[in-house]
Amino acid sequence: MFQQAESTILPLEESQTALSLASLPNPSPTSPPLNHLDISDADVIIQSCDLVDFRVHRRTLAMSSPFFDDMFSLPQPQPSDKGIVDGLPVVRLPEDAEVLSGLITMLYPIPSKLPNAYDKALTLLATSQKYDMVGVQSRIRGEIQTRMFPTLTGPKTFRSYAIASSGQLPSEAEKLARLTLEFPMTFEYLCDELSSFKGWALRDLVGFRKRCRDNIVSCFESFLKLDQPPFNIWVLCTDGRYSYAFVSTATGCSPSWLTQLFQKLLNESREAFSKPLFNPQSIRDLYLSALKDHISSYRCIACTKVHALDGERFCKELTDRLTVALSEVCTSSIFGGMARV
Question: Any idea where the BTB domain is (predicted)?
Answer without folding.
Answer: 40-116
